[in-house]
Amino acid sequence: MDTGTHLVMGIGLAGLAMVDPVVAGSPAVHTAVLVGTIAGSQAPDLDNLLRLKGNACYIRNHRGMSHSLPAVLLWTIAITGLLQLIYRGSLPWLHVGSWVLLSVAVHVFTDLFNAYGTQAMRPFNEKWISWNIIHIFDPVIFTVHLIAILLWAAGLVNPAVLFPLMYLLLVVYFVWRTYYALQLVRKLPRLDHGYHKNDSYIAIPTISLSIWNIVKQSEDDTFHIGNVRNGQLKWLDKTKCSSHPAVEKSKNDPAIRSFLYFTNFACADVKEHNWGYEVRWADVRYRHRKQYPFVGVLMMNKQYETVGSYVGWLSDDRLMKRLRMDTY
Q1: According to the model, what pLDDT value does residue 308 have?
Q2: From CA 288, how far away is CA 159, in angstroms rounded?
Q3: Which residues of 119-128 are buried (b: 16+ CB within 10 A; e: fewer)?
């Protein structure tokens, strides 16, 4: 989920904590829990600092170890320990730590529902888990939290009643979205008039509840990209992956390896220039304004030696400026 959603969820969990008599009975403890759940709801995304080491490092590691099973416990211990230091050991650590643990766990768990996903099963498995059910910003989740928080802040509703009901409704919402996503993927072959045996599909949620982006992968390394609106499938683009020798050579570059480590939906295109080759890997899940802005690009000379590279989100014009290469 996005930072704003994680923030309101952290505040919401502090409201839910009012069902705990120990928390509800002490303003000091409840303040500590509020700080702890907000911190816990943000802590796993501190790996955004990896951007300082470059986009390739960030893309390879974001939502990796910071969202793993050991990290959930480490974030909880670190935040709870810091709160105990601030409050000079006077907090009921089991109660405070439990709510901090819940906030960190909810952060990691909800991130599994969007297309980006996490490596939540590390160190046992490095597979990226992305369930493609909830958009990274879901207006329903954010709005429901915001309304509940405002009602709580205004003193109009007892938080011990409001927030359990809110989270019960959100559990139902998540279950419904999961069921809908599974049913949509199952019926895509019937909606697709060009379906062939062994074609595979993924449905990617958008900010709209009625629109899903669709990617179809065929056996010949062709991707079809489209969407479903109100139950109707429409294809918008088709891309055929290149088998040029430069594509295989590009896989040896550390930046491209980082890009391919993250996605199973990368498709390569090769352009030949007088100075060498431009190999552009694009993640076909992310199509915006007729472009694929999430790319891994490698410039190589005629001897397949790297002369420039970039991994990240960028438009065509900005990419050329970033690489500072004359492709004409």
Answers
A1: 87
A2: 41
A3: bbebeeeeeb
